[in-house]
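Continuing the batch. This is chain 6 of the set; chains 1 through 5 are on the previous pages. Same settings as before, nothing changed between runs. Recording input and output for traceability.
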Amino acid sequence: MEPLSRRSILAGAAGVAGASLTGCAAATPAATPAASPTPSVSVDTTPRWPLTGVPLKDGESPKRIAVTVKVASTKADPLNRGLNEADIVFVGADGYHDLPTGESETRLAAVFHSTYAEAEQPVRSMRPVDAALLSPITGIIGSSGGTGWVQKYMASFSKYLVTKYEDIKVPGKEYTHEASKTSWRSVVAHPKLIAKLTKEFQDGPPQNYLPWASSDAEVSTVNGQAAGSIQVPWTLKMTYEMKYTWDAKKQVYLRSVPWGPHKLLNGTRVTTDNVLVILAEKVEGMITTDGTITEGGSHPEPVYRIVNGTGAFHYAHGGKYVSGTWTKGAVNEVFKFTVADGTPLKVAPGRTFIELPGAKSKVVFKA
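Output for chain 6:
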């Protein structure tokens, strides 16, 4: 989902001038030094879960479909269920102008593959950025649908994704409804059952989503800077902030949202092993299947310039962080990351939260 720095090797040719020496024996040519053996490159062949990088245990198989559930994460609907069982959680812009500043809160895309949570809620609609984020994974998306043009846009990527909407008027097994809530706030998704709604993509993700490190010593943050806390401001006025605090005892980051600690319905704190912040330009508008983006429109949505794009990133693990540059090619290609020192990023195996606050977010790291 890191381009290596290219080095040109300049070979110089040395010209040797020689005089004709009568009666002298011809000079004996110098012996050619033996070529140094080419160093072997260590290749990690450990079978791993493609979305966490965790080595497979005996009897485990990654050949199962990845299930994404789109859910709300707002002050009005703060409680989720299965985020701590998701391999990757993408945090993107919601799109509704629901903050006092007139800007948008956030929406989550929780991806379940190595483990299917029993339930996740409250189910919400898709956003166009889901195509770029999820096509490299392939799989099925559980959601409440989306506005007309977004549904058509997402349907155009059926080669990589299956979209199965809940029908709020027809409760079923895959989506159930809480009697204590009304409208979409009542909808609960069941990933294990959603996985059975299609026969596509049953071999699982076709590639590793992130560049996994093969050992603790290889993780890029080993020599990184302190990241005991991470502040990720959202919105144009930078007043809506996500925060991650490193818990050295539990060896995880504890997540907080603008209104306090991020907790699940059962009171458990939301945690993650890795925090990846991808800074990409975001506009309110529309996007076509050929990648053309226009601002505004009859029903604008948050659109990120990610496909065939580039930008900055920050990656944190173990209380430290590194920064660098990301690139991404086609919609189904993974991100590639290069650390500022020119080395390819190596991510620690584990669960990852990926924040996309916009290109201008001033991320703050503190010891």
